[in-house]
Specification:
- The complex is a heterodimer of chains A (about 300) and B (about 425).
- Chain A is mainly α.
- Helices cover about 75% and strands about 0% of the residues of chain A.
- In chain B, helix 2 runs antiparallel to helix 14 and helix 9 crosses helix 18.
- The chains are: A mainly alpha (about 300), B alpha+beta (about 425).
Chain lengths: ~300, ~425
């Protein structure tokens, strides 16, 4: 009996090695997420000393929130634009950096810089860049051409464009790194064979590069989508959701409810919805990839 | 030689050993009110004062820790309260004190704070920190929110004194507009700062946010009229071309660059930002004038009382006494002046107003005159529904500025948001 236990333990000894890491990771991710879901079923508000279970009340509140259609629309535009731009600009830059061009090493190092700058600093940089006063860098540029100063953040569309630009600027380096890594794993022979067959550059990109990069692109799409969906620092510091609610995205609503109105349960409800959105989008992406792979094979 | 070694070891031991009655005192404060403050003079003031306190009290070891900035610190403190991890003493926003007192962890200061010292403090600053006869925090600073203008610019417009009436204000603004400046900029972003400027005007019109029981009443009777007048004032300024819609995404900090460049003739801002303004644009020193916004009905925007306080959480006698020693040290007029002056805060103690920094500065005396001469000085109501009220009021400003909301609809919308939440919370 004891030998049996010893054999089983020996067979599964890896559990003892990975358990601490698993417990740590779950403790820092799964526990807070599940606790957040639990809080969403209560009426916990930091302004009040007590709380109790109210079950789905907060979800009903969210579903009937008058601003929800606008915030969802903003979130869709924001996430969609950022993901498309981040991936396409990242792919373009990766394709350029994958070629043997002069200074490639230096450019690769410099390209990573926006990724290591904290989001709040990026927001302040863009705020300075697009400040409505004459001290704003863009307004200084306009004045050089004799054009009047603009108040960039007072227009809802311009505010959203600047916000998207700031987040894309930060996210592009990640796309470059991921896609450059993927490009370097594509065998040269494929391109050589295609060249012999008379394929154009566009055909090589369309039929060799992008299909080979698909797993990397998928990872990139998932990371960019969930990252953008959860982005709060840049929208908060750059536009604060304004003017009005024209740049308020779901993640910013969490901040406002949780830290300005102190309504922790409602903030957790919005966070739970974002968590579900993330899960659904990830499953959809994975299904799409699998379906296309099966079709290809 | 051996004796030398033994003596050296004994001396080192004596120096390293903590006194028998040593107390480790944990202090929590937001970065801007700590030795890690980004504003150099504030960091120096706290570093110097903590070091001096440490030298004068070798039996107390100070350990300061940083709280997040803004309202985010309150959930941190409440979480700490729920798990028994509160500091011994902390710098608290006056607005949090009522909620923290409710936790039962904030210690009353009545027995620690001598009545003679309390007598030097602005009575309202004590009253607002008192619940059920117990004083829960010692307010040490105040801030004023109102209109700032550059005196040299005003002189160039032919204006020598701040506007004393609505008509004079309009004349000032029209002259600024004619000179190609933005006449006035008031924060309009959906934040608490926007609400503070808004309620200052609302109180000036005689409105009240809540009744004695904490029930929101800003949408009823005379209060509704006052709030509609407040929103209408913003709308009218836009319609006259005196206030631009671009302020709808701006807080106080975002307005300052327009002030530095002279693009704006006047900005609504806070006295707490004064040192930052001097740091950003040193030429402003001695060149700033302030006034409370005159209102069309003859009144003025009311000053809001509110600032930073010291609160004690330690409940065992040794730590509580040590905490009070620190608070008492920090409240000494000269020490308080060092902090308040470095930060640009206004004092709540007469003894600090009498210090050369305040007594000798015309601008500071102007602030004092505004508080001394105000008919109404109020604090934000320390009720749980206030954050919802604040958010609901500031949310309407963008719509008022761009003309998509009338004052009546804005008040109705704010009422609907607040009362839905009030009804929900009343059922808890």
């Amino acid at each position: 009996m004891s030998r049996q236990i010893a054999t089983t333990l020996q067979k599964h000894q890896y559990i003892f090695f990975i358990a601490p890491a698993v417990v740590l990771v779950l403790g820092l991710t799964a526990y807070p997420a599940l606790y957040g879901v639990l809080v969403s079923f209560t009426n916990l508000n930091f302004g009040y000393p007590t709380s109790k279970f109210v079950w789905f009340d907060n979800y009903v509140r969210l579903a009937t929130w008058p601003a929800l259609p606008q915030v969802l629309f903003n979130t869709g535009v924001f996430v969609g634009s950022v993901v498309v731009l981040q991936l396409s600009v990242g792919l373009l830059a990766a394709l350029l950096l994958n070629r043997a061009v002069f200074g490639r090493g230096l450019v690769r190092s410099v390209a990573i810089l926006p990724w290591v700058i904290p989001g709040i600093i990026i927001a302040l940089m863009f705020q300075q860049f697009f400040s409505g006063s004459r001290l704003g860098i863009m307004n200084t540029v306009l004045s050089v051409f004799g054009l009047p100063s603009r108040s960039w953040f007072s227009d809802p569309v311009e505010s959203m464009v600047v916000l998207i630009l700031a987040v894309v600027w930060r996210g592009v380096p990640l796309s470059i790194i991921l896609q450059l890594g993927g490009l370097q794993t594509i065998p040269r022979d494929l391109y050589e064979a295609a060249a012999i067959d008379g394929a154009s550059r566009w055909q090589m990109l369309r039929y060799i590069t992008i299909p080979s990069l698909r797993p990397i692109l998928l990872i990139n799409v998932i990371m960019a989508t969930s990252g953008t969906l959860n982005h709060v620092d840049i929208p908060l510091a750059l536009t604060g959701g304004g003017p009005g609610r024209s740049t308020e995205v779901l993640a910013l609503s969490i901040y406002k409810q949780g830290f300005e109105v102190l309504d922790a349960s409602y903030a957790s409800t919005i966070a739970t919805v974002i968590l579900l959105l993330n899960l659904v989008l990830t499953i959809v992406y994975l299904r799409l990839l699998r379906a296309r792979d099966e079709l290809a094979s | 030689m051996l004796i030398k070694w033994i003596s050296a070891a004994a001396l080192a031991g004596a120096l390293l050993a903590s006194p028998a009655t040593a107390v480790d005192l944990t202090v929590w404060a937001q970065t801007d009110l700590s030795p890690s403050a980004s504003l150099g003079p504030v960091a120096e003031a706290f570093t110097d004062l903590y070091a001096r306190f440490q030298r004068e009290n070798p039996d107390i070891t100070l350990k300061y820790e940083i709280l997040p900035g803004g309202t985010e610190a309150l959930p941190n403190l409440l979480t700490a309260a729920s798990v028994g991890n509160l500091p011994d003493v902390a710098i608290l926003d006056s607005f949090w004190v009522a909620r923290l007192a409710e936790t039962g962890h904030l210690q009353p200061l009545n027995d620690l704070w001598p009545a003679a010292e309390r007598a030097d403090v602005l009575p309202a600053a004590i009253d607002t920190m008192t619940f059920d006869g117990k004083i829960y925090a010692a307010m040490f600073s105040n801030a004023w929110r109102g209109v700032f203008y550059r005196t040299d610019q005003a002189k160039s417009l032919g204006i020598d004194a701040p506007p004393a009436s609505w008509d004079e204000f309009l004349a000032f603004a029209d002259k600024a507009k004619a000179a190609g400046m933005k006449p006035i900029m008031i924060p309009g972003a959906d934040t608490e700062v926007t609400t503070l400027h808004l309620i200052s005007t609302f109180w000036g019109f005689g409105g009240d946010l809540v009744d004695a029981t904490g029930k929101p009443i800003f949408f009823e009777g005379a209060n509704r009229t006052a709030l509609e007048k407040t929103y209408a004032l913003y709308r009218d300024l836009v319609q006259r071309g005196l206030l631009g819609t671009e302020v709808s995404t701006m807080d106080e900090k975002a307005l300052r660059p327009f002030f530095y460049t002279g693009e704006a003739a006047a900005i609504a801002n806070t006295s707490s930002g004064l040192q930052q303004m001097y740091s950003d644009a040193p030429t402003l020193k001695g060149n700033i004038g302030v006034f409370a916004l005159p209102l069309p009905d003859g009144g003025r925007a009311a000053p809001i009382l509110g600032g930073q306080t010291w609160g004690i959480f330690a409940d065992d006698d040794a730590h509580k006494q040590a905490a009070w020693k620190l608070v008492s040290f920090m409240l000494q007029p000269a020490n308080l002046t060092a902090i308040d002056a470095a930060k640009g805060y206004l004092p709540v103690n007469q003894a600090v107003w009498a210090q050369p920094f305040y007594a000798g500065d015309p601008l500071m005396q102007q602030f004092k005159g505004i508080f001394d001469g105000a008919k109404i000085v109020k604090t934000r109501p320390p009720v749980p529904i206030y954050p919802t009220i604040s958010s609901a009021l500031s949310q309407q400003v963008a719509g008022i500025l761009n003309g998509t909301l009338t004052p009546t609809v804005a008040v109705d919308q704010a009422r609907d948001i607040v009362m839905a939440e009030y009804t929900r919370q009343s059922a808890r």
